[in-house]
Amino acid sequence: MISLVLVLVSCTNKEYEKQESVFIVFKTPTLKYADLGFIYQNNDEMKIEIYGSGQALMTLEISKKNVCMSFLECMHNDDFNTQVLSSWYPDELLGNIFRGQPIFQGKGLSKNSHGFTQKIDDKHKYNIRYNIFNKEVVFRDTINDIVIKIKRVGS
Q: How many C-beta atoms surround the C-beta of residue 109 within 10 A?
């Protein structure tokens, strides 16, 4: 009886408080996606869906500890960073980018009237330019060849 309850509880849909239509570019040495999608968020986690021709091409579910990707098993944030991004990145980096929050604990942050910019360099590890401007997020690391762009569409 208890196992049946656990199965039913784990299969329920997660409730998200916020949904946004976005255009996403997600380019790493191993993955390349650029299309329209949605970001669903609540306080603890988020789900990112990228669509092409009306079909879901990729789904990312990001929590404080794990990242689940549609064609990879769920893995701890640091394992995801090592396999998909860079092992030098902090665990919370991907979630902070999709939420439009400062990364690397605000290192190199300059605020402006419509957002902020971060320039973060560590020779041979990363060369990051991260901009939040109005409805657009741009993360670029030239050493690791990573680009993540998120442009909110609509209101």
A: 15
Per-position DSSP letters for 58-103, written without gaps between them: EEEEEESSEEEETTEEEEEHHHHHHHHS-TTS-TTHHHHHHHT--S
- Does residue 4 register a pLDDT over 90? no
Specify which residues 150 forms β-bridges with: 24, 137
Domain 15-152 has CATH 2.50.20.10: yes
Whether 90 has a pLDDT exceeding 90, the answer reads: yes
Q: CB-side exposure of 60: number of CA atoms within 13 Å? A: 22
Confidence check: pLDDT of 9 > 70? no
- What is the β-pairing status of strands 66-69 and 55-63? antiparallel
Joined together, the tokens standing for residue 51 give: 């669509």
> Per the structure block, which two tokens stand in for 84?
């998909």
Buried b (16+ CB within 10 A) or exposed e, 38-48: bbbbeeebbbb
Which pLDDT belongs to residue 13? 58
Closest by Cα among 135, 97, 95, 140 to 114: 135
Sorted by where each begins, the domain ranges of the chain are 15-152
